[in-house]
Specification:
By secondary structure, the chain is mostly helical. The chain contains two helices and no strands. The protein is about 55% helix and about 0% strand.
């Protein structure tokens, strides 16, 4: 395989993983719903906006 093809495949996999990880947030933005609670390990989010 050529280097360019490998880079493209890796980039597609990384973008796909990011979209899968943030699917609830993306859905909330598209449907104009309230933002879901963030995981507890998101230290930069206020405590009231975190999941327990």
């Amino acid at each position: 395989m050529k280097t360019g093809t490998i880079i493209a495949i890796v980039a597609i996999v990384l973008v796909g993983g990011c979209l899968y990880t943030h699917r609830r947030v993306i859905r909330a933005l598209v449907k104009h719903e309230p933002m879901p609670k963030a995981p507890s390990w998101h230290v930069w989010v206020k405590q009231e906006n975190k999941r327990e």
